[in-house]
Design a protein that fits this description.
By secondary structure, the protein is an all-beta fold. The protein has one helix and 40 strands. Strand 3 and strand 4 form a beta hairpin.
Length: about 525
């Protein structure tokens, strides 16, 4: 069973709060002497002193339940210790005892800091002791391989690729799917990418940057164009900083450890990400967590997908194109600003990739409550969906936040769709969509709500007014619609309100479902006993 810690422990973001797997959980000073040895240097460690109370519990619970990851921070090594490797066409040169050169293959055999400059038509291989920390400082380096990975870590403990300030670096490979090292940059170890320089990675056969353990991106301007996945950390993938432009024939950001339920997670804590993917934008075998940064995703499959749980508690997320925007069994929206555009469901709380509770043209996975959950407690969420807007095979719970749903135009889907009911006790929600499957909150909801059969088209102005004619809320529709559902603290059950569309008024009583739809409980939202 997956370990779940039911604590409101807002975990970790002082710097990047990750822990080295090979070190004990003792605090490490935030500064390291420039004369520190370059053999084995401890990585940053997550401890209770790293707790950051600004991370909402919705994400903190998931962070606490996952295994610690590894990162090599820039203050853990010194450029003064760097040994030089000069790349020269089909060969290279170095005076370092930790470097061997055999034709166009450069092999690093010892821990240390290595500065690479020039151009190489060949391969850079790290084959250091299992306890070694190796820093590859790329300083205007171009490495191109026509056979296997351009940079390959065979053995080491922790490896960092640092992009020197002001440098432009290029790594190109044509790795194949059945190769031992199936990425342009491939590490059979933990891997950190840092620095302030630029790196362009191209792999025409498989992944861009891949690590069999933890992959952490903590700096740099990084462009990846990969035939399959752009960034892949098998145990975990964490982005804390940097500017990332990713193009992927598979997934853009991926973690897929299937043997340990506390690994296989993706955590976006900062940085700026622009990703285009044929498959998913973010794909996590366990959890996907977004606590900061700016993320723009355009995909042919899911914008963000995780098998277990998914939390957005900060940052700015835009999914401009997707089949399903956000999909997981347990979805938590607790902060940040999220915009989703999808050709099917916008937000789908579903138990796996093969389960779809509201796909176009039918009832999907049936009407039974199978335990999934969509919980909204904060943040701003805007959904424009051709399928269901907010969809859960289980329940939908809203306690806060500001949500706008522009739902489907066809009658087989609804702006709101749940199998286990919709409970609202806080926040503001408007759902504008078709009438056939329209659903409204439960009658037992603590916060008042209203539902109206009111039609309009793209560009129509929708207003919610109280009995005195005061406008409570106003929206501009993005497509044709026939129903409006609205809830906020300004609505009191039993009171009369007016919904106008381009001036045409419909009077409704708050807390009363509208007959005629096919939503849960009958009628338009089927008030639930």
């Amino acid at each position: 069973m997956r370990r779940v810690i039911p604590l409101a422990l807002p975990l970790a973001l002082a710097g990047l709060v990750l822990a080295g797997c090979a070190v004990t959980a003792q605090p490490v000073s935030s500064t390291t002497s420039s004369t520190a040895p370059t053999s084995v240097v401890e990585s940053s460690v997550q401890t209770t002193s790293d707790i950051d109370s600004t991370i909402p519990a919705a994400a903190a619970e998931l962070l606490a339940a996952n295994a610690d990851g590894t990162v090599v921070n820039d203050d853990e090594w010194s450029i003064a210790d760097a040994e030089t490797i000069t790349l020269s066409g089909s060969t290279a040169s170095s005076d370092s005892a930790g470097v061997t050169i055999d034709g166009s293959t450069v092999t690093i055999t010892a821990a240390g800091v290595y500065q690479l400059s020039g151009a190489l038509d060949g391969n850079v291989v790290v084959a250091a002791p299992d306890d070694a920390q190796v820093i590859l400082l790329l300083d205007d380096a171009t490495i191109a391989s026509t056979s296997g990975s351009a940079i390959q870590v065979v053995t080491a403990d922790d490896v960092a690729i640092n992009l020197a300030a002001g440098s432009t670096n290029t790594v190109t490979a044509a790795s194949s799917a059945d190769a031992d090292a199936s990425a342009a940059i491939y590490a059979d170890s933990d891997l950190t990418v840092s620095g302030s320089g630029a790196l362009t990675v191209t792999d025409t056969g498989n992944d861009g940057i891949s690590a069999t353990d933890d992959l952490a991106i903590i700096g740099g301007t990084i462009t990846v164009d990969a035939a399959d996945d752009a960034l892949r950390g098998k145990d975990s993938l964490v982005v804390e900083d940097g500017t990332l432009t990713l193009t992927a024939g598979g997934d853009a950001l991926k973690s897929d450890q299937t043997d340990d339920a506390t690994q296989g997670y993706v955590w976006i804590a900062g940085g700026t990400i622009t990703a285009t993917a044929v498959d998913d934008g973010i794909d996590a075998w366990t959890d996907a967590l977004l606590t900061g940064g700016t993320v723009s995703l355009a995909t042919e499959d899911d914008g963000i997908h995780s098998e277990i749980a998914l939390a957005i508690s900060g940052g700015d997320v835009t999914i401009s194109r997707s089949n399903e925007g956000i999909e997981s069994g347990d979805i938590r929206i607790a902060g940040g600003t999220t915009h989703v555009t999808s050709s099917d469901d916008g937000i789908n709380a579903s138990g796996g990739t093969s389960t779809d509770s509201g796909s176009s043209g039918g009832m999907g996975g049936g009407m039974q409550d199978t335990g999934e959950s969509l919980t909204i407690s904060g943040g701003t969420l805007v959904v424009d969906a051709a399928g269901d807007g907010l969809d859960s095979n289980g329940s939908i719970t809203m306690t806060g936040g500001d949500v706008t749903v522009y739902g489907p135009t066809q009658q087989g889907n609804g702006a709101l769709d749940s199998n286990g009911g919709i409970d609202v006790s806080g926040g503001t929600l408007v759902a504008i969509g078709s009438t056939g499957m329209a659903e409204s909150p439960d009658e037992s909801s603590a916060q008042g709500w209203l539902a109206a059969t009111a039609s309009g088209s793209a560009g129509s102005t929708v207003q919610i007014m109280d009995a005195a004619g005061t406008v409570i809320a106003e929206y501009t529709a993005t497509k044709t619609f026939g129903s409006v559902v609205f809830t906020s603290s300004a609505i009191t059950d039993g009171q009369t309100y007016t919904v106008t569309v381009d001036g045409a008024a419909t009077s409704v009583t708050a807390g009363v479902a509208v007959a005629g739809g096919m939503g849960m409980g009958g009628g338009m939202g089927g008030g639930r006993p």
